Amino acid sequence: MILQFNIEDKYGYKEKISPEEIVSFTKKNGFKKLVVFARDGWGRAFYKSKIYPLHPSVDQDFIEKLKQLCEVNGIKLVLMVAHTSNKYLCEKYPEIKQINKDGKPICLDTKIIEEIEWPLACLNSKFKEIILKEIDEAKKYTNALMLDSFRYQPEEYRQCFCENCKKEYKKQFGKDLKPSSEINEEYFNKMFWRYKVVIERLKEIKQKNIELIYNSHPAGWNWRNNTIIELGSEYIDVVFAEASETDFTPLGFLSLITKLNKDLSKKEVWTSRNLFHLFNTSKYPGIDQVSLNAFEILFSGGIPLFTIFYSTFKADGNKIDLKELNTHLEIAYSELSKAQPYKEIGIVFSNTTRDYMGYKDVKLYLNDIRGFFYSLYYNNYQINFIGEKNLSEIKNYDIVILPSFACITEKQAEIIKKHCDKTRIIATYNTSLFDEYRMRENFLLSEEFGCSFKTISKKTFYLDTLYPQGDLIIVEPNSNKYVLKNIYNSKYSNGYEYVLGMSSPPKDENIISYITGNRIIYIPFQLGSYLYKYGYCEYEKILFELIQKEPIVKCNQNIRIFVFKKNNSLFLGII
Ligand SMILES: [Zn+2]
Questions:
Q1: Ligand 1 ion: Cβ-proximal residues, 5 Å cutoff
Q2: Using alpha carbons only, how large is the chain's radius of gyration in Å?
Q3: What is the 178 CA–ligand 1 centroid distance (Å)?
């Protein structure tokens, strides 16, 4: 398994940091790979560089010594390079700074204490040539290089409008690069161009013949980097799914992002479990927490990567003993490498829909995905993701869910139609209602759904004992035989004061919409979002009624089972 050892301090430590103590910790805990900075976010190198000053806490042969010690101890060294945060270079060449639409420098700092510590350098500036030289320097020590923070972001409020970007945009599109005053084609063109810039840089870096590991931060940065690993996968060897959110997200989060990144990129995925608690970074959370998370990662198809800060190492390093855990993980890993995950339920994930539908707030799309995932996960179904580019994978599953899969091309619709008789497909809400951001008059899959689009209602509605509060699509059944459930109007919009507005209002007798099913089952609201937000078992009841299938391996919710196929038998990972 992998150790990421981050020297994160601004001023350096009083004493020098020795390569011996790092390698000794790595070895003692049974790690086979060690990831360290070659150059940090302040622009300081941990080796003698022609580009950067030396980090104040290390000797100039720090990386050279690390390399030698790793070789002697059978540890593979990975160096983190080309961090887009680079204070040293941004001060030396102010013209390379990323500049936002208000003319301010874009930085990583979430809170600026005295001054900006981590200004970002622009990937369209001469920084792009400097990082190639930086990579040449780092390559002398190892061929495995990680882009741990490579940020040039697509959302309007984080986009770069520096002179370099303006020049490049004009060159490519013949238009001025300006902040958008409305949401139109130009708005999205700018957003998607940002992805292309990142992918272009990845391509240049990959041409250096290195093993390229890319931090996708799958649930960070509004989940948008999942587009990079899908579109740029030919330049990436390993996806690093940084998972710092683990300490404040539901159990199953690590499984979700590991599977998502693996299924979108088709690459090896390293998923992180910090050896500190996110809100107390000098404290080790303990072996129980770490083991639970590590096995969740491993059984979801990833390789656990443990991140430690130098400050954690100093404060709590002597409490950390992962040797036995790493031995167990290695054994399980070697067994799993001969097995295939059992394909039971596929959830289609569309980066395009996330960007169009979630341009203002990605939750409008993501909550529908998350709700289905967690609900099925807790009920021990085997779940994988299907990227919008790989829809023909639908045929590998018994059941496929299309949560709010709004933006569908005609070609994609054809693939879905081709597989919807053999695979049970369930679609929600605005699935197939959009061609990119243009709304269609009717669902592209109207015939398969057995209903037609009428309008979107903001009213509270009523289904059995439920009153989902959110947008409801009003549909008209194409024939009464396709109606699976009636959706009624509710008498009032809110529940009672005593239950914080959460109780069901009484049912009106007017039917306002329907759950329908011809060749595809159609739910006219975001069932996944309600599962995610409220998690009522009544919502799950609807889901299980519609999927009509028990999990391949059943057990209670305190145990999570991961099922694999190995030769002709099933192989279980149990947490
Ligand atoms: Zn720029």
A1: 122, 124, 160, 162, 164-165
A2: 25
A3: 12
Report yes or no on 2 lying in a domain: no
Total domains in the chain come to: 1
Whether 177 maps to a domain, the answer reads: no
pLDDT tier at 271, thresholds 50, 70, 90: very high
Cα 374 to Cα 255, 368, 392, 553, distances in angstroms: 10, 10, 24, 17
pLDDT in tens, 458-503: 766 666 555 566 789 999 999 999 999 999 887 776 555 565 666 6
Whether residue 444 is contained in a domain is answered as yes
Q: Rounded CA gap, 273 and 285, in Å?
A: 10
Q: How much distance in Å is there from the Cα of 122 to the middle of ligand 1?
A: 5
Please give the distance, rounded to the nearest whole angstrom, from the Cα atom of residue 121 to the centre of ligand 1: 8
DSSP run (H or E) holding 258: helix 253-265
Residue 466 sits in a domain whose CATH number is 3.40.50.880
Nearest to 400 by CA among 263, 266, 299, 298: 263
Q: Return the number of other C-beta atoms located less than 10 Å from residue 202's C-beta.
A: 23
In a domain, 65, yes or no: no
Domain of residue 397: give its range: 345-547
Q: Is the ipTM of this complex over 0.85?
A: yes
Say how many Å lie between the CA of residue 106 and the centre of ligand 1.
10
Cα 205 to averaged position of ligand 1 atoms, centre (Å) = 19
How many CB atoms are closer than 10 A to CB 40? 25
Q: How far is the CA of 171 from the centre of ligand 1 (A)?
A: 14
